[in-house]
Amino acid sequence: MYRLAPLLHDKAVEVRGAASAGIVRAAGDLALDQLYLLARETDPRPARAVAAELGAMSSAPSAEFLGHMVKRDNREVQLAAARALAGRTDAAARAELDSVKTSSTAFPELLAIANGSAPAAGPVAGPTDQAVIALQDLMAHHKDQAVGWIVARFPGWAPQEAIDVLGAWLVRQTMPAAAQAPAPAPAATGPSAAL
Length: 195
Hints:
With 195 residues, the protein is mostly helical.
């Protein structure tokens, strides 16, 4: 979670979205405090990615967070949060959906989701493994090219794929520093050591 946190301030909305969703996937409820910047986002993509992750959870804090998202002044964010709540079966999510039903500001689509008359979003399609495999191959032989490869392709990835690729990059196997340093020469003993 802490390695992804700096990416929440990235200039690219795709990076911010992937990092926000990745933090939720990595830390669950512990990540919710890190998502304070989500309220300032004008682009709905980061919030939609987070809603998809929260939709797979069942805790009361995650349902409450989705409840706050349903009240945001952004139609796409509201719909994503409502669909995430509708896809859950826990009591906390049901309570948040019930509050949408009684809201005077809920628009018809939102009410349809809350009432169960609109289809809830299905599970988010799993990311393809091709990007992660390609990245791992590059990292094994050409680390500098791997960075360029990520930067060039990142904007075109779906949020789930971007999260997996960033995760693969962050947890890449690096050789310990001790293994890279040459072993110290054994200390000399005897008369020649005094010279």
